[in-house]
Amino acid sequence: MCPAIVDAVKTRISEKARALGFDAVGFAAAELGPEARTRLADFLAQGRHGSMSWMADRAEQRSHPRALWPQARSVIALGLSYAPESDPLANLAHPETGNISVYARGRDYHDVVKGMLKHLAAFIVSRCAEPGTEVKVFVDTAPVMEKPLAMRAGIGWQGKHTNLVSRRHGSWLFLGEIYTTLALTPDEPHADRCGTCTRCMTACPTDAFPAPYQLDARRCISYLTIEYDGPIDPEFRPAMGNRIYGCDDCLAACPWNRFAQAGHTAKLHARPDLAAPDLADLASLDDAAFRARFTASPIKRIGRARFARNVAIAIGNSADPRLIPAAEHLVRDSDPVVADAASWALYRLKLPG
């Protein structure tokens, strides 16, 4: 296609993406530079991925889009804002409740974003492409380096907390990608706008950033509460506070958030029962009740045992003797990891003074 036609196609795709509800759209070539591949290799070599063996297993496909799909020529990067309406850390001051990461307080974003991507992909094939054009859509679970691709597509940049930052949407963007055989002119990559700021790094409760732009997932509360299924090291338990699923501290600390307006996608808005859930209530959930409570929520995927472990640690950090019966209930849990966390919690609650 000639440049004028390519530009027209990009405009139509961008307009359709925004009509579907996406807040950001950009275009990149289906390639990543050596810096992204080197950073991934170093991250894996130092074992900073922890128990996430799937990152190492498909490192080659992750480090290069065409290793995942050789026919890909372009990547359309999409962003959907989930910026909260109020202070995402306000609930940390109420230790008798559990604090859930903002992104998980509503419907599972994988389903929401993937549905929007499929609509956009169908539009591209039917209205914007030559016969034989192919597309593939990805949301988070595939071996795709979403943040470097989004940076190359001009949506934002990877901040010192390694997450994407946007001048318009701050740190609150869900990302999705459409790989396509279309040859589309790449947009200009986004420049790094972090400057000398290190607020995200100093905000981390567990010092998970050994250096700017580096993350040790083994120290990250999001990793510990979501990805890791073993007993959490006692070193990190007090710093977890009442964070029972994920952590927003480094995201919330970013000064660029002052430009972010609350996300407009209704399906992603916080459910009332997940805004500040009672720890005692959560501790009482058996497997069936857990599944029912978290239907259509990303929390469901970690399973009841991992979630109960997190709840037990939050109970131990509450300093609220009224939660002793909840801890005693979890001490009798059939899962040894849950029982261990509950024993630790009970000890903490019964400490004198």
Which helices and strands, and how do they pair?
Elements: H1 3-20, E1 24-29, H2 34-45, H3 53-57, H4 59-63, H5 65-68, E2 74-81, E3 99-100, H6 109-128, E4 135-138, H7 146-152, E5 157-158, E6 164-165, E7 173-180, H8 199-203, H9 221-227, H10 237-240, E8 243-245, H11 249-252, H12 272-275, H13 279-283, H14 287-293, H15 303-317, H16 324-331, H17 336-349
Parallel strand pairs: 3-8
Antiparallel strand pairs: 1-2, 2-7, 4-7, 5-6
Helix pairs in contact: 1-6, 15-16, 15-17, 16-17
Descriptive report:
The protein is α+β, with helices and mostly antiparallel strands. It contains 17 helices and eight strands. Helices cover 41% and strands 10% of the residues. Strands 1-2-7-4 form a four-stranded antiparallel β-sheet, sandwiched between helices. Strand 5 (157-158) and strand 6 (164-165) form a beta hairpin. Helix 1 (3-20) packs antiparallel against helix 6 and helix 16 (324-331) runs antiparallel to helix 17. The longest helix has 20 residues, at 109-128. It starts with a helix and ends with a helix.
